[in-house]
Amino acid sequence: MAHRFVFDCPSCGAEMHVDADIRAEILAEGCVLCRTSVTSDAFTTASGVETR
Ligand SMILES: [Zn+2]
């Protein structure tokens, strides 16, 4: 599967396209760059109309 989510870190401003696995990892571990813990609000779907 392609990268379906866009992660937009509210703390450091990092923006990256991620897949569901990485999304889950970021939710569990925090931002990959600044380690700030984030919620699902930091993600938007990259395409389509999927809701969480
Ligand atoms: Zn960050």
UniProtKB/TrEMBL annotation:
Entries under Pfam families matching the protein: DUF7560
InterPro entries per UniProt: DUF7560 (IPR055982)
Highest rank taxon of the organism: Archaea
Identification of the protein by name: Small CPxCG-related zinc finger protein
Organism the protein comes from: Salinirubrum litoreum
